Amino acid sequence: MLIGTPKEVKVHEYRVGLTPAGVRELRAHGHAVLVESGAGAGIGLSDDQYQKAGAEIVASADEVFARAEMIVKVKEPQPAECKRLREGQVLFTYLHLAPDPEQARALVASQCIAIAYETVADGRGGLPLLAPMSEVAGRLSIQAGAHAMEKAQGGNGVLLGGVPGVTPAEVVVIGGGVVGYNAARVAVGMGAQVTILDRSLPRLNHLDTLFGGRLQTLYSTVDSLEQCISRADLVIGAVLVPGAAAPKLVTRAMLGHMKPGTVIVDVAIDQGGCFETSRPTTHRDPTYVVDGIVHYCVANMPGGVARTSTFALTNATLPYVLALADKGYRKALLDDANLREGLNVHHGQITHAAVAEALGYEYQPAQEALRPWWAHPEHHT
Fold it and tell me: Do 269 and 171 share a structural domain?
């Protein structure tokens, strides 16, 4: 198979879909790889390194999209990239379609096969291709939030860990999954007072055991959430419903109960955000203020530490890239129910239930979509 990796075009996005090591692995399996010139330059991966690994370096994204049978990226395709996709071409990347009807329309119109990293499953309730970036985003959320809390950045001027004789910051983490755990881990390590809310009692019990009483766990209700954020200096939104739009847990009215200069970091912004007042921002202009509350809503947070993120992501995605290339997408998806969960769009049909529900499309089960035309019941008359 001919696999292509273009340079990412989102603002301040320096991650890349394949590393030279990944290229070498694909070449060892007998596949050819196209890499757009400069695709890895932002994280210190040169064209020469890709060439030595066996890739063909091409001058433009146009050529990558025109020639490759499968496109391996990081971020969701931007409008210009969607226009380059063609019928039957496989796209393997983050999509986050639920809050993005325009992208969904473009992918449906292209007739491509779009497989989303964020909905690939592991059979145990986990999301193995989202987890590495969730780990990064969770840890980074505290780093970014601590910076935004500085007075010069519009925050309340509170030092996250305090100093002897001065109370540390109060950090509230909404959601106890991968993002929430990693955010809490860093915040506790920096000396903050941390409260984590979740609706799963087993998860809260697990977190309490992990942290050995160094943070407070609370069952999440409207009342407990409102009380917590009214005391907080930093609030981390770490809620995820796989494939679906994030629930709006903090309303604009609730902001009125918060202290001026409090910072909220909405890690769920890729899926629409879990604060009613959230809207996507970029690393170039990461924050804005609503009702005195500083909002940090960067939609590609892990891109801020692009080198670490690239290696963490590609370690996870490479086995799936190899499976898709070795077997062809149809057999790879039919053979692996967990990988099949990643199929969001197939020849103009939406094949993920949560995405279809969020966007109002008719849902076609992935297994049904993948059957060859002659295997469908209507062809057995």
Answer: yes
